[in-house]
């Protein structure tokens, strides 16, 4: 399980919106016992944070001290804190401070052995699938992504800078980024990712990184076709496993992925407290 989200790692490297803070808990040996990333609230939104404590420093008050500092930074605003991995210690600390479970993000995985190596997607006449063209497709993708994830708390708000940062990452591969077009209209996309050994497991693991379909194109088979093409690409890379993330309360999506061979693997929990 990764200790921080990709977003927190990117902001640690490159900074983020005004008001963000990195909170460190030093260890006696000069190392790091714990870390938290704080994002200030904007408008009427909650302040948000992530918190992680080194395994050897747990049950020593480090998490409690970091959480206290996050609450000070939040001031009178409600605070949401992500815990990666539904660990008993995290739940115990959160509940003792008056937090309740606000969101649960499932990581689901499946083997790639049963994936068709040469998919034959069924597409409507005039619809084609091709790979992303850096420097040309950014604006079309951002518009389509915003429509596909209009009600998603993070994904739907991606900016050109969010996309640029990921295009600059070592893992970015346009050959694994598939777009479905009807003429000059982008219907949907499947952006895959490959995690290197040691990132989310001892071996490389693929990811359904962003899979989105324009609301007007839902129910046309575009999503299924993009899924098949992306999984076939990951299998062709020699990977044996693929993961994805989905909200636990999205029962329809969880059931759909379950029918597609995905199984629950890990859990991230967002804890919320309103002062």
TrEMBL record:
Entry binding sites for acetyl-CoA 1: 51-53
EC number: 2.3.1.189
PROSITE patterns in alphabetical order: GNAT
InterPro entries documented for this protein: Acyl_CoA_acyltransferase, Bact_Acetyltransf, GNAT_dom, Mycothiol_AcTrfase
Keywords annotated in UniProt: Acyltransferase, Repeat, Transferase
Key word Amino-acid biosynthesis present: no
Domain spans labelled N-acetyltransferase: 1-121, 127-275
Any matching Pfam family: Acetyltransf_1
GO molecular function, one term: mycothiol synthase activity
Keyword Lyase listed: no
Domain of life: Bacteria
Functional note: Catalyzes the transfer of acetyl from acetyl-CoA to desacetylmycothiol (Cys-GlcN-Ins) to form mycothiol.
Complex and partners: Monomer.
Family membership noted in the UniProt record: Belongs to the acetyltransferase family. MshD subfamily.
PANTHER family on file: AMINOALKYLPHOSPHONATE N-ACETYLTRANSFERASE-RELATED-RELATED (PTHR43877)
Record protein name field: Mycothiol acetyltransferase
Organism: Geodermatophilus pulveris
Name of the coding gene: mshD
